Fold this sequence. Notes:
The longest helix has 47 residues, at 7-53. The protein is rod-shaped and about 80 Å long. Helix content is 87%, strand content 0%. It has one helix and no strands. The protein is mainly alpha-helical.
Amino acid sequence: MSTTPDPVVHMSELEKFEQRFDLKLERLENKILRLMLAQTLTLVGAMAALKLFG
């Protein structure tokens, strides 16, 4: 009987880890994009308010 790990089982574990990593990365990218959008809208709103009331 061999003590080496089964490469097929090992690959499926790696694939699961990779999928979780990809999901976390995608969530982070979405969070960053939402933050950038909020900053842009805030800046545009502030510039419009200055133009109207300033």
